[in-house]
Inverse folding.
């Protein structure tokens, strides 16, 4: 696009006609899912559209509030739980060209959640460890305020906030 625009600007006679550069893109409607397929022919066409065989194609339920039209309801398989040694077309996301992606594929990348593998510790153990650690920190802070340990002894008496002394008043001067 930049080359076409530069060629237009550098060519002679560009004062007589305006310079335009066209960017060839698809329309948004080409990327949007269609309506829910209600017949077998529409289901087969939708399966072909998403590169699936009709036996594997299963759309989201039509009465579901999170219905996405004819987009396939794919299983939630995160990128971290896929084989790391397979030769992928796009290794960063562990995907191959033309394979359908989940509707929320940005959640299941390598840096995000992995809900397919079994965790090393149970949820109860994780929460209990967190609460014990934070409780220990809170206890140390409370003990530090209750029993202060100064670095050096106090050299002079306290000068501010002594009992019975008023350093200022709002009464008018006499």
């Amino acid at each position: 696009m930049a080359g076409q625009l530069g060629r237009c600007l550098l060519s002679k006679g560009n004062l007589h006609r305006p310079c335009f550069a066209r960017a060839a893109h698809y329309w948004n409607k080409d990327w949007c899912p269609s309506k829910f397929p209600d017949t077998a022919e529409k289901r087969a066409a939708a399966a072909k559209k998403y590169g699936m065989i009709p036996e594997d194609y299963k759309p989201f339920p039509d009465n579901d509030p999170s219905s996405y039209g004819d987009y396939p309801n794919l299983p939630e398989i995160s990128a971290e739980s896929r084989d790391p040694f397979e030769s992928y077309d796009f290794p960063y996301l562990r995907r191959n060209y033309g394979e359908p992606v989940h509707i929320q594929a940005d959640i299941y990348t390598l840096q995000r959640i992995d809900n397919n593998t079994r965790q090393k510790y149970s949820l109860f153990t994780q929460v209990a460890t967190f609460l014990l650690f934070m409780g220990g920190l809170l206890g140390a802070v409370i003990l530090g305020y209750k029993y202060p340990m100064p670095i050096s002894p106090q050299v002079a008496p306290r000068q501010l906030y002594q009992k019975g002394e008023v350093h200022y008043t709002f009464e008018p001067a006499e």
